[in-house]
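Continuing the series of single-chain predictions for the mutant panel. This is the parent chain; the variants come on the following pages.
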Amino acid sequence: MAAKSRLDPTVELADAFIGIATNMPVIQLVHYINSRTLLNLLREKDLPVYFEKSDNLQDFKFYHCQDEDYRSVFCLLGNSSSGLNLLPTHKQFGYFLVVQGALPEEKVTQLVAQIKSIAGVQLAALINQEPIKSLGPILQDLEIHLTDLKKEKAEKQTRIMPLAEDQ
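Parent structure:
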């Protein structure tokens, strides 16, 4: 009997994974995060995440900004969509702020404190990513989504004038 080879893709964990528990609408939360933390989270296309059990893609709310000073990317993800949770083991959190890049540890701690200080936020905490087995595929989906967004924006910027055959 031949041995079945199985490749497990390596996933680079996020530099910070912050869980946010709140009852306020996402638009209001984003407004307060932008005003308190000086981030500039903007609404982007929803993040499609693949679920093996149901064998389909589910879209989750997605906000994004890039900080050139710290060479970091900030992504706010909704934890629930159509009754499914992005991370079922962390149902208590309504949203996750994923930080990827060169953000110093003291800035991450300051960011968590600033989010905690928002009225209406019950909890904001750094989440240990190591024991969460379902996080790897989600971070892969996030990386693919960010690459697609970057590609779409680049195509829009290079298109200055329509081609003659398109007119």
